[in-house]
From TrEMBL:
Protein's name in the database: Histidine triad nucleotide-binding protein
Domain HIT stretches: 7-112
One function term, GO molecular function aspect: catalytic activity
Residue numbers annotated as active site: 101 (tele-amp-histidine intermediate)
Motif range (Histidine triad motif): 99-103
Taxonomy of the source species: Bacteria, Bacillati, Bacillota, Clostridia, Eubacteriales
Record-linked SUPFAM superfamilies: HIT-like (SSF54197)
Pfam family, one: DcpS_C
InterPro entries: Histidine_triad_CS, Histidine_triad_HIT, HIT-like, HIT-like_sf
Amino acid sequence: MLSDDCVFCKIIKGQIPSTKVYEDEKMLVFKDIEPKANVHLLAVPKDHFKLLSQMDEIRAQTLSYMLAKIPQIAAQNGCANGYRLVINQGDDAGQTVFHLHIHILGGENLPW
Ligand code: 5GP
Ligand code: ZN
């Protein structure tokens, strides 16, 4: 299920433009609008839920599916030499978009 008032759901529905690098029936990967590394992609499930803390068995299956796809997607998009995956959970992590997403950061020797 997608949400009407979520920026990533709007990107999934094509209501907000994005630079997509991979899409299938379960997930979408697109470029972050404010990249924090030479390569900064966001991988999102095509199912709206806000937080990693809302994980359940079905959602965990989707996350597992995404993790199985990400290495090839990353390698094909400038991260053949390595990358970092990040999930921000909640306010202390600085989460700003409340639709679960995995940051894929790479394309350089990450400075932190
Ligand atoms: P968070 O801090 O919630 O983990 O990360 C949200 C990320 O989404 C940020 O890196 C931010 O730059 C990115 N972002 C927010 N709005 C948009 C948008 O409309 N389009 C794209 N491509 N990225 C966005
Ligand atoms: Zn959403």
